[in-house]
Amino acid sequence: MKETVLGKNFGLMLEDVDLVKYSSENFEELYSKFVHNKFLVIRGHRELTDHEFSNTFTMFGDGFVWDEAFERTGVGEVHKIIHRDTPPSAGKENAWHNETSWQKNPCKAVVINLKVVPAYGSDTLWIDTNKVWENLPAPLRQLIHKKSALHSPPAENYHTEIVKMKEQQADKGFETDAIHPMVIQHPDTGLWHIYVNPLFTQYIKGMAKKDSYWVLHQIYDTFHIPEFQYRHRWQPGDIILWDNRSTVHYACSGYFPNYRESRRLMLVSQKGKPEWNTVDHLPLPSEEEYFRSNPEFYGGIRRHRNRKQWFTRDIEKLLEQYG
Fold first, then answer.
1. Backbone region of residue 129 per phi and psi (left: phi > 0; alpha: psi in -120 to 50; beta: other values)
2. What is the pLDDT of residues 208-238, one digit of tens each?
3. What is the tens place of the pLDDT at every residue in 34-49?
4. How far apart are CA 321 and CA 204, in angstroms?
5. Is the dihedral of CA 128, 38, 276, 51 positive or negative?
């Protein structure tokens, strides 16, 4: 098996591997590679049947079966995502998000296998949300580390099928929104991660809407720092498995009106609830100590903060009110 590191503790490519055999014989080793690198790219793999695809990756969690939001394959939890040149398939995922964060038991992991790749414009980006957390100003970390936020699918400009599914579940008496901690600790790595996203996070609990909006967008501004990102240019047959607790992602929609087809498997915790720990203290050194040990972030982060006018006094006012 050939391994290629894609970033600093962020992304690993595997080639010349038979996942079906390797996952069954070396699952703990594969799982360790997955959680510590946050995502795995498997390139050049033989084509897996839908059953092999499901059996291999449901070792990581239970397959989530969509009611009717996406086209089905021959295996219930494996669904197709087909993008054509007409709505509603056009351009619905081009926003940073954690998959299904609006559910009580959101996805633990997601795996996608691209079957048809457009010639251009279909890259997917991932962000290491531990780096986002570590590089927020200390007063902002102090403000949010015990806060929770409400997650819900937007009613407009999103998959009409998912909005319909949410409405059907609500009619049956199911809760279709979820409140999650803004900062979580990964149970396997011990790292702390931001758990909010601009697609599904509606507001911070206990804050006035205008203050919540301001705080969330200070966090989202940090998503755009390139050192926190990995951008994948797909090749036909690529398989990517990512940890939905430690990353957010953005699926570019620059390929329309060209055709794109993939199959996806969404994996939830077998425990029936999210697999993460909550923050009860601030697990970080001072900013100066952090930058001394992580010099690659110093200049860009400092310039970013100055440019965005992250005033400590503004955050401190919020700490007085909401801390």
1. alpha
2. 999 999 999 999 999 988 889 999 999 999 9
3. 999 999 999 999 999 9
4. 14
5. positive
